[in-house]
Amino acid sequence: FLRLVNGHSLCSGRVEVNLKKTWTSVCDSDFDWQDAEVVCRDLDCGAPAVIHRRAHFGQGQGAVGAKQFQCRGQESKLQHCPTAARSKQRCSQSRAVSLTCTGYTGFRLANGSDSCSGRVELQWFFKDWGTVCDLYWDLTDARALCQQLGCGEAVAAPGQARFGQGSGPVWADVFECQGNESRLSHCAVSSWGRAGCSHGQDAGVICSDSNMTRDSPGAGKKRMRTVLITSVLFYL
């Protein structure tokens, strides 16, 4: 009934719904914050991060759907939302709405010398915490995470479980940060679940605000900084 098409990952793309056995786009003027919350939740993709307007991920095929969703934001599935016929205002594929969901809803560094260094751990949809595979993790990705945690710039992105092996799942997602993101959750993601990594390959981060980068009386204290995402939404 619902999918995101032509995006950077399973949790981003043009919003399409299956109406009468035909996939149709949704007009951006009919799509709001509550609708975005439900779409991300329905797809197990966390909370909405960005609503993209004007066919950001390309135009779909055929006519834009005539149905307008009127979600309240609490529904578990988009098809549970009330609907109404769209107004007589015409809408073309150039106005197809797209969406990027966070997928991950929690970010933290664990088992480091302080809150700005440690093993990278991410929480999936407010549930399981897991680690990140070091296979494609690099300094650009680490920079986005340091920025998100308020820890300055990235100094190092060590792998091979430098900060000890974690527990739970090892997320095999590949973050494709470009270097200008202020949050890891804003980076494109690809290769979801394709790589087979063990906790011996847990990725780590050392940020510039960490005691590990300078002599400090506070060095050696192990703390953990956690950032939880609720529903941060940006309109582009």
TrEMBL record:
It is found in: Secreted. Gene3D superfamilies: SRCR-like domain. Its main location: secreted. Transmembrane segments: none annotated. The keyword Aminoacyl-tRNA synthetase does not apply. Disulfide bonds join 27-91, 40-101, 71-81, 133-197, 146-207, 177-187. Residues 2-102, 107-208 form the SRCR domain. The keyword Glycoprotein applies. Keywords: Disulfide bond, Glycoprotein, Repeat, Secreted, Signal. Pfam families: SRCR. It comes from the Eukaryota. One of its GO terms (cellular component) is membrane. This is SRCR domain-containing protein. It comes from Lepisosteus oculatus (Spotted gar). The lineage of its organism: Eukaryota, Metazoa, Chordata, Craniata, Vertebrata.
